[in-house]
C-alpha cells in the first residue's frame, strides 16, 4: 500500500507539472491508486470511483456554493460597490491613502455578501481602479491593494471555503466557522490598511485626491443603504434562526436581484443570462473539483496511510508549535501554486489526524487553514485575486512585486496573532453558543 500511495502522489505531481487541471489530476491519480489497490478484483475497486464522485457533492451544505457564487455575480453588476465607495469617501473625506483604505473597507463589506475573493476583486476593481488612477496612484499599486483587499472575503462570512471545510470536517459546523471568521477577517482588513496608507504617504501617491469632490453624506448613505442591509439580512437571519446557511444563500440571491433590478435598475432582464451562465460555470468548476477530490481522498483512506503518517509526525520529537510551523509553511508553499478549494481538498484529510492528536480546536484550525488560503490567493505565481485585479488595472503581475511583500507581512502578522491567541477565532462562536 505504501508503494501505491507513493505512486499516487507521484502521478498527481507529474500531472500538475505538465499543466493538467487540478481536478483531473486529483481524480486520475486517485482512480489509478484504487485500481492498483484492487488489482485482484478490478470491477469491485472501480465501482468505488463513480460512487465517491457522486458522494463528494451529494452533501446539503454544498448547495450553498452555487447560490453564493451567483450572489457574487449579481452584486458585481448591481452597482452596490460604487455606492459603498461613495459612502466611505463621504465619511473619511479625501487625502493621501484614503482611497486605498476605502477599497479595503468596501472589499471587507462585500465579503459579508458573497464570500468570493475573485468576485470581490472584480466588483471593487471595476469602481476603484479608475478613481485611484485619476487621484495619482500608480496602476500596479492599485492592483496590489485591490487584490490584497479581496483576500479578506474568504474569512468574513459567508465564506465558500468555510462551507467546504465543514463538509470535510464533521466536527466543525458552518455557523461556528462563520462566527469564527469575523474577528480574524476584520483584523486582516485593518492590518492591510496600515501598509496601504503608509506606502501612499511615503511615496507621495494620491496627490490629486485632495482636489476631488467629496460626496454628500446623507445622499450617499441613502443610496448605499440597500447594500449595507445585505450582510445584516444574511448573517442576522442565520443567527435568528430564520434560515440555514444554505437557505441564506437563496435569500441573498433574491435580495440581490431585487436591489439590482428594482431599486438601482442596473441589471436588465437581458443581463440575467450572462449572470447565470457566469455563476454556473464557476460553480461547476468548484463542484467538479470537489467531486474528483473525493476519489483522491477515498484512495488515501483505503490505503490507511494517513493515520500512520500522523502518528509518525507526532512521535518525531517535534514540539506542537514546531509541527504547526511546518503545517503553515507547507500550506503557504502549496498555496502559491494551488487554488484555495484545492488546498482544502488535498490537505485537510492529511492534516486532520494531526490536529486531532494534538487536540487542536477544529474551528480554530479551520480559520488558520483559511488564513493560509487567503495568503495563497495573494501570493504569486498563482494569485487568483491578484490576477483579477491586475486584469482590471491593465498591468502584469510582475509589476506588483515591489508592493506585494508589505501586504503579505500584514497577513502573516494576523496569522501569528491567531496562532498565539486562539480566542480571536474561538471566542465569538463560544459566546454565541455554537
From TrEMBL:
It is found in: Cell inner membrane. Pfam families: DctM. The chain crosses the membrane at residues 7-37, 57-75, 87-110, 116-133, 145-168, 174-199, 220-242, 248-267, 279-301, 321-350, 362-383, 403-424. One of its GO terms (cellular component) is plasma membrane. One of its GO terms (molecular function) is transmembrane transporter activity. It comes from the Bacteria. Residues 9-423 form the TRAP C4-dicarboxylate transport system permease DctM subunit domain. It is a multi-pass membrane protein. Keywords: Cell inner membrane, Cell membrane, Membrane, Transmembrane, Transmembrane helix, Transport. NCBIfam families: dctM. Belongs to the TRAP transporter large permease family. Part of the tripartite ATP-independent periplasmic (TRAP) transport system. The complex comprises the extracytoplasmic solute receptor protein and the two transmembrane proteins. This is TRAP transporter large permease protein. It comes from Lampropedia aestuarii.
